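Appendix B, record 7
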Amino acid sequence: MACSCSAPEPKSPAPGFRKALWIALWVNLAMFVVEGLASLSSGSVSLMADAIDFFGDSANYILSLTVLSMGMLWRGRAAMVKGITMTVFGLVVWARAVWVVQAGITPEPLTMGAVGLLALVANVSVAAILFKFREGDSDMRSVWLCSRNDAISNIAVMVAALGVFGTGTAWPDLIVAAIMGTLAITAGISVVRHARSDIAEARACDVEPAPATSQNR
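Structure tokens (predicted):
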């Protein structure tokens, strides 16, 4: 039976999506450097988690740009890689938080708050640019989820900074880091499920019906 679906056919990306990805890529690379240095100086787990997330998002944007003009099968595979990466990132954040609990490190809240605010401005700008692409295929959806999660994480880092400042303990920072890790895990699972659906549909629609043959008697 011939496949009647049309989604897996190779098609051009949505207008403006490539440009949006390039903007997101450079913003994320810049913030990775800024937050990475700030996390080392402040000792904040949530800030370090956010910096690692910026780096992961940058790699994901490069991957998206690579497969942007390819068919649905390859774009689904790229989204699968990104979903798995997001899930692993969440697990790493949880592991880091557990280690800090044992080490008894208290972060510096003023650096956390200032850098968290800067990261929030950057991510809200990127999320606004990518908002109209949130209902696309699994690859577009993964890009949108990355930006959305980053903006939520930045707000959480700022809340953690206030908590650390008010309590003088690392627990607000650790709680926020755990939430960020959980958010990454759930978003990653969502992207993986969507990617599996796209891949399955692409493979099903790629099967050509066997040509009919007739035998002369």
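Remarks on this record: The first helix runs from residue 17 to 42. The two ends are 26 Å apart (CA to CA).
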